Amino acid sequence: MKILVLGSKGQLGRCLSDQLIKTTHDVIYLSRANFDISNLAALSENISLLKPNIVINASAYTAVDKAEDDYQAANLVNHLAVGKLADICKDLNSWLIHISTDYVFDGNAVMPYSEGNKTNPQGIYGESKLNGELAIIASGCKYFIIRTAWVFSEYGNNFLKTMLRLGAEHKELSVVDDQIGCPTYAQDIAKAIVSMLPNIGIQTSASGIFHYCGNKPCSWYDFASSIFLEAKARGYKVPTILKKVTSAEFKSIAPRPLYSVLDCSNIKAEFNINPSDWVVGISSSIESLNLNSSSKKHI
Question: What is the value of pTM for the model shown?
């Protein structure tokens, strides 16, 4: 099959490259540098020329706080461009695999969110991502929407790499302890997508939304603690004091869901895909980083 990956230089895009190279698919990678998804006219022209069987959209506007003051940009990338992409896939009879987020929910639940739970985004980022989902569904194209959360890896900018950097610079760090979610290793998301590909083209395969995230919930504080435990074992300099703080103490521009655990039972039942083991993901990420770089500080 011919597969087009959009956002190929981002965190998930690079992980998709790592996983798809192990397959026999004909894969085309496009990054923001050579293909801007927000250019709606070029979007239609280029994808129509390529005629992919599958489009994997790993491109997104992910600056959660910045989106609060930049609605137009967030809406263009996460909603309008996604809707246009879905229309193109409909015209080409191509499948669209699109990545969404836990931010479509309000975070007020006490049980893991299933795909059918009511959405209620609390900020511009979540609203733009939800509108992108709705545009895909309204287009009538064939699609898999994958909602995920707390994504990290050895690539790009993410919580794990931020903790490693800050841990090398500070003896004491404060980390939020009242937001609960499931960290997700981006390589595992990529593997999950690759596992779904054989189902595409099967006449009985149906479009749908699927949740995929880490295998156990934790707080950001717990996540940071696990990162530093692994980092210390590998010779990184880590803070001597890690303090718990509340969301109210750690001010952010955009509201964060206090509880964003996703129920992954549907993707397990449909595709036999297990949740991401994020503790193993931490180890794999740190192992993959260049241990001789300036980011590593020996104790």
Answer: 0.94
